[in-house]
Amino acid sequence: MAHRFDPSLLREYDMRGIVGRTLGEADAHALGRSFGTIVRRGGGAGVAVGYDGRLSSPQLESALVAGLVESGVQVLRIGLGPTPMLYYAEAVLQVDGGIQVTGSHNPGDHNGFKLVHQHSPFFGEDIQRLGAMAATGDWLEGQGRVERVDILDRYAARLVQGFDGAAYRIAWDAGNGAAGPVVEELAKLLPGEHHLLFTDVDGHFPHHHPDPSEERNLADLRAVVADKKLDFGVAFDGDGDRIGVVDAKGRILWGDQILAILVEPVLRDRPGASIVADVKTSRMVFDRITALGGDPVMWKTGHSHIKSRMKQIGSPLGGEMTGHLFFADDYYGFDDGLYAAVRLIRAATRLGRSVTALRDELPDLFNTPELRFPVPEQRKFAVMEEVRARLLASGEDVDMTDGVRVTTEAGWWLLRASHTQAMLVARAEGHSPQALATLVARIESCLADSAIRMGDPVD
């Protein structure tokens, strides 16, 4: 029986919707039927399935599994856990794809799916193909099987494989998200002193929202690091594929700053390697990669885009400003906040300096955090086209890798359409507070020319 997805569910990197409005069990079932058909037509037979800690995830997971089974697929259910645990399962088990039921960092009533096929991200046109298949009921029939696989301990052990780091005093904030049980296991496996916050999985997110790219969500972590005089603290988003870091001085290290630290040991081992960073990344990071003898590659924002680009060019390391960090040197190439925490410990040890000292060495630039501004879904891409056309007509220095990144004497600014929300996303970085103000004013004027008022950023 054919099924039509709400068009807003079919995003660029994954599938996301609002439970009860644009997403329900019928959608999960139809996804299983479509993805299972694609796997079988590609010569495969097995799919790993996991889910995060949101209240709606177990029901969506059950419907998804039923759809996969009806398409003749063998399903390995790994249960509740972070998205990188699903990626790990897809990499090491005898399967041909993987699906994680997850709403990532979005509000509690949101949910969705992240997909992998044949060890590569499944996104963009592939996700649109799922919608077309469901709309026509273009599905294979079959009778698959279901097997339960407990992989958490194996995954945690893999995170610390080859660990050569020192013992630090660290706070860990899981935000009541799906990373909690793995954080508890990691604390047992790592040397040092570990203070755990909110590792109980709770889809109500009672303490704070699990999104470390929002400064206010790091308040509890900062307080513990300061109170107990710890070396640093780490936090994770709702599905554990992103990391946030607070140093001993209480400063937040954004994803691009973490990448700037991690890149040095990687380039020591792989001189001249290409390092991929998204368009929101600080100029400082690209300059640092060059200074360390690497080849900086600016690429589109989005975990699927970064992973795919790294695979295309053989890059050992990549990152995004929002805290997605990707390791393909002695890992599998996917984004994993938990593994990023382990690698940060190892990097600080190898470089012989604390996380705080490593942050001290990075230049203090004047930049905005990621700014997100509401624009109707049906309007956001049109606004970007209008802005792009005006910038090109005016002869400005514009990089169009993803949205527009404009370089001026004052610094640079970025405007792009979010592929996960009805938002435009902006960021600016200037050489001084005055330069930054000039750049932000330029963004505001570009939006005003398309009758969009910048207003106050939203979560």
What can you see in these coordinates?
The protein is an alpha/beta fold and 459 residues long. It folds into four domains: 7-151, Alpha-D-Glucose-1,6-Bisphosphate, subunit A, domain 3 (Alpha-D-Glucose-1,6-Bisphosphate, Chain A, domain 3); 169-251, Alpha-D-Glucose-1,6-Bisphosphate, Chain A, domain 3; 255-338 and 355-361, Alpha-D-Glucose-1,6-Bisphosphate, Chain A, domain 3 (3-Layer(aba) Sandwich); 366-448, Alpha-D-phosphohexomutase, C-terminal domain (TATA-Binding Protein). The chain has 14 helices and 22 strands. The chain has helices at 25-41, 57-70, 83-92, 125-136, 152-159, 180-189, 219-227, 255-269, 283-291, 303-313, 337-351, 355-361, 377-394, 433-448; strands at residues 15-18, 46-51, 74-80, 97-101, 110-117, 120-121, 146-148, 168-173, 192-197, 232-236, 243-247, 252-253, 274-278, 295-299, 317-319, 325-327, 366-367, 371-374, 397-399, 404-408, 411-417, 423-430. The strands form four sheets. Strands 1, 2, 3, 4, 5, 6 and 7 form a seven-stranded mixed sheet that branches. A hairpin with a 5-residue loop joins strand 21 and strand 22 (423-430). Helix 1 (25-41) packs across helix 4. It is globular, with a radius of gyration of 22 Å. The protein starts with 14 loop residues before the first strand and ends in an 11-residue tail after the last helix. The mean pLDDT is 95.
